[in-house]
Design brief:
The chain is of the alpha+beta class. Helices cover 28% and strands 34% of the residues.
Protein backbone atom coordinates (compact mmCIF):
# COMPACT_ATOMS: atom_id res chain seq x y z
CA UNK A 1 0.00 0.00 0.00
CA UNK A 2 1.74 3.17 -1.18
CA UNK A 3 2.10 6.16 1.10
CA UNK A 4 1.40 9.71 0.02
CA UNK A 5 1.09 13.14 1.54
CA UNK A 6 3.11 12.57 4.69
CA UNK A 7 2.35 8.94 5.37
CA UNK A 8 -1.31 8.50 4.42
CA UNK A 9 -1.78 4.97 3.10
CA UNK A 10 -3.69 4.69 -0.19
CA UNK A 11 -5.18 1.44 -1.42
CA UNK A 12 -6.41 0.82 -4.95
CA UNK A 13 -9.54 -1.27 -5.14
CA UNK A 14 -12.27 -2.08 -7.62
CA UNK A 15 -15.36 0.10 -7.83
CA UNK A 16 -18.40 -0.83 -5.74
CA UNK A 17 -21.92 0.34 -6.67
CA UNK A 18 -22.21 2.31 -3.43
CA UNK A 19 -19.25 4.46 -4.62
CA UNK A 20 -21.17 5.92 -7.55
CA UNK A 21 -22.58 9.11 -6.00
CA UNK A 22 -19.22 10.04 -4.49
CA UNK A 23 -17.43 9.44 -7.81
CA UNK A 24 -19.99 11.47 -9.74
CA UNK A 25 -19.70 14.39 -7.27
CA UNK A 26 -15.90 14.21 -7.55
CA UNK A 27 -16.15 14.36 -11.35
CA UNK A 28 -18.33 17.48 -11.08
CA UNK A 29 -15.72 19.05 -8.80
CA UNK A 30 -12.77 18.07 -11.00
CA UNK A 31 -14.06 19.21 -14.39
CA UNK A 32 -16.06 22.18 -15.68
CA UNK A 33 -19.52 21.88 -17.18
CA UNK A 34 -19.30 20.50 -20.69
CA UNK A 35 -16.36 18.28 -19.75
CA UNK A 36 -17.65 16.64 -16.56
CA UNK A 37 -20.01 13.71 -17.06
CA UNK A 38 -23.73 13.59 -16.37
CA UNK A 39 -24.84 10.78 -14.06
CA UNK A 40 -26.13 8.67 -16.98
CA UNK A 41 -22.89 9.17 -18.93
CA UNK A 42 -20.63 8.21 -16.03
CA UNK A 43 -22.84 5.25 -15.14
CA UNK A 44 -22.73 4.04 -18.77
CA UNK A 45 -18.92 4.28 -18.94
CA UNK A 46 -18.54 2.36 -15.66
CA UNK A 47 -20.96 -0.37 -16.80
CA UNK A 48 -19.71 -0.66 -20.39
CA UNK A 49 -18.54 -4.10 -21.48
CA UNK A 50 -14.77 -4.35 -21.00
CA UNK A 51 -14.69 -1.37 -18.62
CA UNK A 52 -13.12 -1.26 -15.19
CA UNK A 53 -13.12 1.39 -12.49
CA UNK A 54 -10.41 1.62 -9.86
CA UNK A 55 -10.81 3.66 -6.70
CA UNK A 56 -8.02 5.20 -4.60
CA UNK A 57 -9.03 5.06 -0.97
CA UNK A 58 -7.43 6.39 2.18
CA UNK A 59 -6.87 3.06 3.95
CA UNK A 60 -6.95 4.63 7.42
CA UNK A 61 -9.95 6.91 7.10
CA UNK A 62 -11.82 5.28 4.24
CA UNK A 63 -12.26 8.43 2.16
CA UNK A 64 -12.08 8.17 -1.62
CA UNK A 65 -9.21 10.29 -2.97
CA UNK A 66 -9.67 9.54 -6.67
CA UNK A 67 -10.78 7.12 -9.34
CA UNK A 68 -10.04 6.06 -12.90
CA UNK A 69 -12.30 4.48 -15.51
CA UNK A 70 -10.61 2.42 -18.20
CA UNK A 71 -11.66 0.24 -21.08
CA UNK A 72 -9.79 -2.91 -22.09
CA UNK A 73 -8.93 -3.95 -25.62
CA UNK A 74 -5.91 -4.38 -27.88
CA UNK A 75 -5.56 -0.64 -27.42
CA UNK A 76 -6.88 0.28 -23.99
CA UNK A 77 -8.56 3.58 -23.25
CA UNK A 78 -8.65 5.80 -20.18
CA UNK A 79 -12.11 7.36 -20.02
CA UNK A 80 -11.44 9.61 -17.02
CA UNK A 81 -9.10 10.05 -14.10
CA UNK A 82 -10.32 12.19 -11.22
CA UNK A 83 -8.41 13.13 -8.07
CA UNK A 84 -9.97 15.10 -5.24
CA UNK A 85 -8.40 18.52 -4.59
CA UNK A 86 -6.93 17.22 -1.31
CA UNK A 87 -5.25 14.33 -3.09
CA UNK A 88 -3.67 16.26 -5.96
CA UNK A 89 0.09 16.56 -6.36
CA UNK A 90 0.56 13.75 -3.89
CA UNK A 91 0.92 10.69 -6.11
CA UNK A 92 -2.71 9.53 -6.13
CA UNK A 93 -3.14 10.21 -9.85
CA UNK A 94 0.12 8.45 -10.69
CA UNK A 95 -0.86 5.46 -8.59
CA UNK A 96 -4.26 5.25 -10.32
CA UNK A 97 -2.75 5.59 -13.80
CA UNK A 98 -0.06 2.95 -13.17
CA UNK A 99 -2.68 0.59 -11.72
CA UNK A 100 -4.92 1.06 -14.77
CA UNK A 101 -1.99 0.52 -17.15
CA UNK A 102 -1.13 -2.69 -15.27
CA UNK A 103 -4.75 -3.86 -15.57
CA UNK A 104 -4.74 -3.09 -19.30
CA UNK A 105 -1.40 -4.85 -19.80
CA UNK A 106 -2.71 -7.97 -18.03
CA UNK A 107 -5.78 -7.89 -20.30
CA UNK A 108 -3.52 -7.92 -23.37
CA UNK A 109 -3.47 -4.24 -24.32
CA UNK A 110 -0.38 -3.14 -26.23
CA UNK A 111 -1.13 0.57 -26.01
CA UNK A 112 -3.41 2.97 -24.17
CA UNK A 113 -5.03 6.16 -25.33
CA UNK A 114 -6.96 9.02 -23.77
CA UNK A 115 -8.21 12.53 -24.41
CA UNK A 116 -7.72 15.75 -22.50
CA UNK A 117 -8.92 19.28 -23.14
CA UNK A 118 -6.39 21.41 -25.03
CA UNK A 119 -6.52 24.00 -22.24
CA UNK A 120 -5.93 21.49 -19.40
CA UNK A 121 -2.21 22.14 -19.06
CA UNK A 122 -1.79 20.36 -15.69
CA UNK A 123 -3.28 17.17 -17.19
CA UNK A 124 -1.13 17.44 -20.30
CA UNK A 125 2.00 17.82 -18.18
CA UNK A 126 0.93 14.86 -16.00
CA UNK A 127 0.40 12.58 -19.01
CA UNK A 128 3.65 13.60 -20.66
CA UNK A 129 5.52 12.75 -17.40
CA UNK A 130 3.96 9.29 -17.65
CA UNK A 131 5.14 8.68 -21.21
CA UNK A 132 2.09 9.76 -23.22
CA UNK A 133 2.48 11.59 -26.53
CA UNK A 134 0.02 13.79 -28.39
CA UNK A 135 -1.02 12.05 -31.60
CA UNK A 136 -3.69 14.44 -32.84
CA UNK A 137 -6.24 17.10 -32.00
CA UNK A 138 -9.94 16.33 -32.04
CA UNK A 139 -11.86 19.55 -32.84
CA UNK A 140 -14.89 20.38 -30.67
CA UNK A 141 -14.62 17.05 -28.83
CA UNK A 142 -16.30 18.26 -25.65
CA UNK A 143 -19.93 19.38 -25.48
CA UNK A 144 -18.80 22.90 -24.54
CA UNK A 145 -16.93 23.16 -27.88
CA UNK A 146 -13.41 22.74 -26.48
CA UNK A 147 -10.96 20.73 -28.59
CA UNK A 148 -9.29 17.62 -27.18
CA UNK A 149 -5.75 16.38 -27.49
CA UNK A 150 -5.59 12.65 -28.18
CA UNK A 151 -2.66 11.04 -26.38
CA UNK A 152 -1.20 7.55 -26.67
CA UNK A 153 1.33 5.41 -24.86
CA UNK A 154 2.79 2.07 -25.89
CA UNK A 155 2.63 -0.45 -23.07
CA UNK A 156 5.79 -2.44 -22.65
CA UNK A 157 5.69 -5.83 -21.03
CA UNK A 158 6.30 -5.44 -17.32
CA UNK A 159 9.04 -7.49 -15.71
Amino acid sequence: MPLYNGGVVITIRDFRPEDFEKLWRMDQECFPAGISYSKPELRAYIRQRGAFTLVAEDAEHGGIRGFIVGHSGVSGHIVTIDVSPGGRRSGVGSLLLRSAEDRLRLAGARAVGLETAVDNLPALSFYKRHGYSVVRTWPRYYSNGVDALVLKKELDEKC
